[in-house]
Each structure stands twice: as structure tokens, then as C-alpha cells.
Amino acid sequence: MTSLVFETDDMRPVRAWCADGEVHVALADGRVISTPLWWYPFVSGLDDKQLNDIELMYEGIWWTAVDEGISVKSMFLGIKAPGAKAPDRAA
């Protein structure tokens, strides 16, 4: 068995947006992956316009307002940014 290679042309982001408490990334191969925004505390103070001011990189995305980004690989692997804390759930 071979190991999965994450950084490929097929997994290159072609579009990214934030909505409904999640960041969504469309990949070159047609898939869309999403992760909760609370995974990335560095974007917690951004408004909708800033959340959607996203630069695409070969391996991920970058929020220009906070000079921070995430990789597609980290999204697939479920890697949260340091300090990420799940929101309290109402009982």
C-alpha cells in the first residue's frame, strides 16, 4: 500500500468561503471540504467581509486580515489551531 500524498494538483484550492460557522474549500478535483471556524481562533474577531477575504495558495488558504492560514492537509486530518475550543452547547 502506498501513502496518501496530500499536496497534488487535484487537491489545490480553487475557491474558498466562510458561511454558517464553517470554512469551505472547493478543490480542483471537484470536492468541497469544510471545517468549523472555531477550529481557527485567529479568525474569531473577523466580520463576514474579512472572513471571506481569502487568498488561495497551492496547499491551502490565507486570511489576509490576520495574516494567518490553514492547509488543505490540516483540514483533512482534523488538525485544529492552537487554542481552539469548541463552543458551549446549549442543553
Give your account of this protein's structure.
With 91 residues, this protein is mainly beta. 11% of the residues lie in helices and 32% in strands. It has a three-stranded antiparallel β-sheet. It has a three-stranded antiparallel β-sheet with strand order 4-5-6. A hairpin with a 4-residue loop joins strand 2 (22-27) and strand 3. The longest helix is centred in the last third of the chain and has 6 residues, at 72-77. It starts with 12 loop residues before the first strand and ends in a 14-residue tail after the last helix. It comes from Pseudorhizobium endolithicum. This is DUF2442 domain-containing protein. Pfam families: DUF2442 (PF10387).
Looking at this protein, list some descriptive labels.
91 residues; mainly beta; NE0471 N-terminal domain-like; three-stranded antiparallel β-sheet; 2 helices; 6 strands; 32% strand; globular
Helix run count: 2
The low-confidence runs, each spanning 5 or more residues with pLDDT under 50, are none
Mean pLDDT: 92
Strand order of the largest sheet: 1-2-3
Enter the CATH topology name: NE0471 N-terminal domain-like
Distance between the termini: 45 Å
Helix content bin: 10-25%
> What's the helix-strand series?
EEEHEEEH
Largest sheet: 3 strands, antiparallel
Query: What structural class is derived from the secondary structure elements?
Result: mainly beta
The CATH architecture category equals: 2-Layer Sandwich
Radius of gyration: 14 Å
Gross morphology is globular
Estimate nothing, just give the exact number of structural domains. Answer: 1
> What is the beta-strand fraction?
25-35%
The CATH homologous superfamily name equals Uncharacterised protein PF10387, DUF2442
Q: Kindly state the number of beta strands.
A: 6
Instruction: Kindly provide the name of the CATH class.
Output: Alpha Beta
Protein name: DUF2442 domain-containing protein
InterPro entries: DUF2442 (IPR018841)
Organism: Pseudorhizobium endolithicum
